[in-house]
Amino acid sequence: MSEKRKPLLGFMGKLPSGPALGNSGKTHCPLCMGLFQAPRLLPCLHTVCTTCLERLEPFSVVDIRGGDSDASSEGSLFQELKPPCLQPQTGILCPVCDAQVDLPMGGVKALTIDHLAMNDVMLESLRGEGQGLVCDLCSDRDVEKRCQTCKANLCHFCCQAHRRQKKTTYHTMVDLKDLKDCSRIGKAILCPAHPAEELRLFCELCDQPVCRDCAVGAHREHPCDFAGNVIHKHGDSVRELLKGTQPRVEALEGALAQVKDTKSALQQRVQAVAADIRTFSEGYIKAVEEHRDGLLKQLEDIRLQQENSLQLQKAQLEQLLADMRTGVEFTEHLLTSGSDLEILITKGVVVERLTKLNQVEYSARPRVNDKICFSPQEKGRCRGYEVYGAINTKEVDPAKYLHRARERQTASFTLLCKDAAGEGMGRGGDNIQVAVVPKDKKDSPVRTIVQDNKDGTYGVSYTPKEPGIYKVLVCVKEQHVQGSPFTVTVRKKHHPHPGVFHCCTFCSSGGQKTARCACGGTMPGGYLGCGHGHKGHPGRPHWSCCGKFSEKSECTWTGGQSTARSVLRTVAL
């Protein structure tokens, strides 16, 4: 059948150029590097020689996957929902992309034959003056001509015999040199069940090409039609799937570009912050230099952590993009260069692969950002000296919420758990362990209470019995959180003011002569308390109990009236 028809592919998007090792549009096997010999098309749309595939070491799919997962080249980031494997099955790994290939019952030889690759090999052989081509009839001599009617390559002897036979006398014979500019010279595709019959029909019920004998035999009463009559319907479905796949390639390229830009911005920001740190640290003594080195090490750890996260996302996006490109390039080549039967034969593999790729989930946003800055205003201590400077990544520093605690008063803080992308977990159930231990009494830990809020946060509370320095150890799944152990200084119990905050004793007591004040001031006429402008008055408002000038301060008076007066008088002086 040689009916004319318009091209199947109505939309051709220009794909970015790049290496496509193993693409069946090529003519050489990616393993043996020689011309394809009986090429087989894998589910990942890479083509490999049959003998090369048979030399690969097979493995049990159940042993590898545990019977409940489908390992593939996309990696753990791009997981798909697929029914669990219930029966033992043999598999191999694609030598190009390491995708798992589940072998059918017939093994490697039951995989789909890549007729496009066979056509490309024959074209390349023709352009090389016929080197490597042998007669299709005798399989012994070099090819001289080609029968366009039989689609067979013939040597000189078989060509003469072909002309002498009555049945093939009028067949069209063409010299090989006249076929070098042709785009297709493929052989007739024969039926596997009836090798003498060519596949010309397509069974709609079984969704496969069949020959004439199959149509009157195993496919009797099945809806069968010539391949040329059904190619547009099936070709259009593949074309629509391709149209939906091509925009995803562009989206993946955009996501990959964002990751690369973010990585570059991260590196530049790290260098800028390192320069700020070095400039700020100049002129200081050894303690400040040690503090600077500590900041640089922390910055390097942040850079390594975030670059590793970006590198992992970059590798996963590149792998998915390579798989997408392979699928799109192969499908375009199939629809533009393949015959009706070749499209119908390969349709199932192509549709399955493109559908699988379109279902892959991926994050188009970089997992981390370059929001790193240096804060020189924050105070700290190094080797006993007060130093300034800290690195801020907009992460909550637990130490800020741990440093305030008082004896015999319950102190608390909240632990927020985040995933690798920096997002809140949104769920509880993690193994959280918190220990509060006095620095000088490591065998007397303080009792702690951890409350799971079921939203990724955990409330921690403890009550220190004595003032002093404590170590707070926070572990999630038996791993210390960043900064653990933390140092907490527990101060003495807060003492409220028993007196009044006044301008003078005379005003606050209503003129009572016996009222006293811790400031030590007195007034003539037998007044034991202070008054404005008189001896001992501090000249501003103060507490009557301890003499402090701050209204929100802690009271320091602990003795009796007389003791407090004498002591506070000395303090006032």
TrEMBL record:
<keyword id="KW-0677">Repeat</keyword>
<keyword id="KW-0863">Zinc-finger</keyword>
<dbReference type="InterPro" id="IPR027370">
    <property type="entry name" value="Znf-RING_euk"/>
</dbReference>
<feature type="coiled-coil region">
    <location>
        <begin position="249"/>
        <end position="323"/>
    </location>
</feature>
<dbReference type="Pfam" id="PF00643">
    <property type="entry name" value="zf-B_box"/>
</dbReference>
<keyword id="KW-0479">Metal-binding</keyword>
<feature type="repeat" description="Filamin">
    <location>
        <begin position="402"/>
        <end position="490"/>
    </location>
</feature>
<dbReference type="InterPro" id="IPR017907">
    <property type="entry name" value="Znf_RING_CS"/>
</dbReference>
<dbReference type="Pfam" id="PF00630">
    <property type="entry name" value="Filamin"/>
</dbReference>
<keyword id="KW-0833">Ubl conjugation pathway</keyword>
<protein>
    <recommendedName>
        <fullName>RING-type E3 ubiquitin transferase</fullName>
        <ecNumber>2.3.2.27</ecNumber>
    </recommendedName>
</protein>
<dbReference type="InterPro" id="IPR014756">
    <property type="entry name" value="Ig_E-set"/>
</dbReference>
<dbReference type="InterPro" id="IPR047153">
    <property type="entry name" value="TRIM45/56/19-like"/>
</dbReference>
<dbReference type="GO" id="GO:0008270">
    <property type="term" value="F:zinc ion binding"/>
</dbReference>
<dbReference type="InterPro" id="IPR003649">
    <property type="entry name" value="Bbox_C"/>
</dbReference>
<dbReference type="InterPro" id="IPR017868">
    <property type="entry name" value="Filamin/ABP280_repeat-like"/>
</dbReference>
<keyword id="KW-0175">Coiled coil</keyword>
<feature type="domain" description="B box-type">
    <location>
        <begin position="186"/>
        <end position="222"/>
    </location>
</feature>
<dbReference type="InterPro" id="IPR001841">
    <property type="entry name" value="Znf_RING"/>
</dbReference>
<dbReference type="GO" id="GO:0005654">
    <property type="term" value="C:nucleoplasm"/>
</dbReference>
<dbReference type="InterPro" id="IPR001298">
    <property type="entry name" value="Filamin/ABP280_rpt"/>
</dbReference>
<dbReference type="InterPro" id="IPR000315">
    <property type="entry name" value="Znf_B-box"/>
</dbReference>
<dbReference type="Pfam" id="PF13445">
    <property type="entry name" value="zf-RING_UBOX"/>
</dbReference>
<feature type="domain" description="B box-type">
    <location>
        <begin position="130"/>
        <end position="176"/>
    </location>
</feature>
<dbReference type="GO" id="GO:0061630">
    <property type="term" value="F:ubiquitin protein ligase activity"/>
</dbReference>
<dbReference type="InterPro" id="IPR013083">
    <property type="entry name" value="Znf_RING/FYVE/PHD"/>
</dbReference>
<keyword id="KW-0862">Zinc</keyword>
<comment type="similarity">
    <text>Belongs to the TRIM/RBCC family.</text>
</comment>
<feature type="domain" description="RING-type">
    <location>
        <begin position="29"/>
        <end position="98"/>
    </location>
</feature>
<dbReference type="InterPro" id="IPR013783">
    <property type="entry name" value="Ig-like_fold"/>
</dbReference>
